[in-house]
Amino acid sequence: MSDAASDGRSSDRILLVEDDIVDVGVLRSEHPDLLVSDIGMPGVDGYGLIQRVRALPDNVALIPAIALTAYARAEDRTKALLAGFNMHVSKPIEPAELLAAIAGVSGRRRVVRP
Questions:
Q1: Residue 98 C-beta-side C-alpha neighbours within 13 Å
Q2: Picking from 12-16, 20-24, 56-60, which range would have the lowest pLDDT averaged per residue?
Q3: pLDDT score of 2 more than 90
Q4: Confidence at residue 10, expressed as pLDDT on a 0 to 100 scale
Q5: Mapped to the 3 state alphabet, what secondary structure does 18-44 carry?
Q6: Rounded Cα gap, residues 83 and 10, in angstroms
Q7: Which of 36, 64, 81, 103 has a 20 to 30 Å separation from 52 between CA atoms?
Q8: Residue 4 confidence (pLDDT)
Q9: Residue 87: partners with Cβ closer than 8 Å, 6 or more residues away
Q10: Residues 1/14, Cβ–Cβ less than 8 Å
Q11: Is the pLDDT of residue 29 over 70?
Q12: pTM of the full predicted structure?
């Protein structure tokens, strides 16, 4: 979990998912403002993770989510969006581009469930 600035500016909590160890229960306990997940994780991939998140019965299911992945084909983007991600971003990515992607979805508090 990473927190933004603590100097009086708005602080967003972003959950970075790097492997399939993350249980969706972490979302309930940590209350992040944004989920950033790789797609190609061992075990449950990013598609499975976002589908589990979107199926939750509470507001946690509405968390904005970015798929950050090396799968960069048009059909990969479509698959990520249909699975429930708000945005698909290809790796490698420049830090400024990632920040722009985060800014692009961070204002969205409601998502359409697939």
A1: 15
A2: 20-24
A3: no
A4: 54
A5: CCCCCCCHHHHHHCCCEEEECCCCCCC
A6: 30
A7: 103
A8: 41
A9: 65, 66, 67, 101, 104, 105
A10: yes
A11: yes
A12: 0.77
Per-residue tokens: 3: 């927190």
Q: Quick one: which H or E segment has residue 51?
A: helix 46-54
Contact 106, 35 (CB under 8 A): no
Q: Give me the residue label for tokens 């429930």.
A: 84
Q: How far is CA 89 from the centre of its chain?
A: 10
Classify 73 as helix, strand or coil.
Answer: coil
DSSP 78-94: HHHHHHT-SEEEESS--
Per the structure block, which two tokens stand in for 27? 């979302």
**Cβ atoms within 10 Å, residue 46:** 25
37-58 pLDDT, tens digit each = 888 887 788 898 899 899 988 8
CA distances from 61 to 24, 54, 91, 110, 114 (A): 10, 4, 25, 9, 11
